[in-house]
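User: I'm writing a short report section on ligand binding and want a predicted complex to refer to. Could you take this sequence and nicotinamide-adenine-dinucleotide and write out the structure as tokens? A short remark afterwards would be nice.
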Amino acid sequence: MRLTVIGTGYLGLTHAVCMADLGHDVMGLDLDADKVERARNGEAPFFEPGLEPLLRKNLDAGRLRFTTSFAEAADFGGVHFLCVGTPEAAGGRADLRHVHAAADALAPHLWRPCLVVGKSTVPVGTARNLAARIRERAPAGDSTDVAWNPEFLREGFAVEDSFAPDRLVFGVTSQRSAALLRHVYAKLLDGGTPALVMDLETAELVKVSANAFLATKISFINAMAEICEKAGADVVCLADALARDGRIGGRFLSPGLGFGGGCLPKDIRAFRSTARELGAESVANLLGEVDAINLGRRSRVTELARDVVGGCLAGRRLAVLGLAFKPESDDVRDSPSLHVCGQLLREGALVSVHDPVAMGNAALVQPALRYASSVSEAAADADAVLHLTEWTDYRAIDPAMLAAVVAQRNMIDARGALDEAAWRSAGWAFRVLGRRGHPAGPPVRAAEELSRRR
Ligand code: NAD
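Assistant: Sure. The structure tokens for the complex follow:
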């Protein structure tokens, strides 16, 4: 089939490449001429494991091309995927300007019957409005249809997730649109991926409620971290015990610095704003609390940093490991780590940072940090080291090696991912969010003794 993908950012470029790899002829369109040029040259403008080789493979096979022209895109194919950004606007609402602009630019060129398929994350009701907007402007009028096919891929696993999604969601208004989407995704459906067909509104809500659920699970365990700290309990043990309950499961149950990135935070705020507008107060209240708990974790890390350096951050040297909002990504949109860095800078700390791939992007938004080319360079003379994004490389750091370069052996592991015993035995004072700071290691033994005594 001949498909177009409008908006070739994280989602759109991945979708275009994966659709081409499934055998379709794909044209990607973006307003950003530089992005288009780089894509034409086989270069992804962001870090995503496995994407670039697949981009080059499909360019070479002639199944993939890129343009900035809506006329060319409209002429090229009959199914147009809309993958433009929906950033956060004032008051947490979703900013739909790009969605509307893309639809308005495409519609006047739609002379033939076609299907516009939204993949962007949007507030419920957007798809139906967009369908009316496109039909008004398209020469083909009522023979243009709109469907919503929300995307659930995770950055860092985008290619893998595109080829093996847990499910495909088709929000449609006609059997014809559902059949077209089945045709587009035939290879995945043949491979056993279920397709769930529903109305437009439910499809839009599936995406935001999935994100709301995941965010709630993360904020739940982080709320438990708060009470563990106050009660002298250990949230890591608690999370492990909860995770072993099959009804709960361990995914999205790691206590720590919470969620960030270009999706979860803005999506739950936009969902909250829609819920308020629709009068669904329980959803709005729940999501407000989830967001507040999440942001509270960032302030808690700053508080811990202040605590370990003796009460005042001004003039103290801090090393931050990890800047991306999560490992395996160079995305720093709403990065918890960068947010903490901003708080540390505001309190007068001197902050050296390191990240395996996200330093270029971070420098664009936070130029006041000192960007170090290695972990030891970042940690040189530091009064405390903060582990804020859990890259695998950081688990392999030798605590004794790092001890030799810092001024004081203070480690704050805000992701709970480092080997506490190893760091302690190299003489480090080790703090984990959700533990009051047990100098002799995790309190598992104490708990075991208690149960024996009982
Ligand atoms: P992004 O900012 O990386 O990409 C958006 C792209 O759209 C940019 O390249 C931009 O130049 C282009 N664009 C903007 N206006 C345009 C227009 N009028 N015409 C053509 N192109 C235009 O954003 P993203 O992360 O890819 O997210 C896109 C959407 O997908 C959002 O709604 C997001 O919530 C959703 N989503 C993202 C992910 C993810 O992991 N990034 C996952 C699932 C869903």
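A remark for your report: Confidence is low (pLDDT under 50) at residues 438-454. The pocket of nicotinamide-adenine-dinucleotide is lined by residues 6-12, 29-32, 35, 83-86, 98, 101-102, 105, 120-121, 151, 153, 155, 262-263 (CB under 6 Å).
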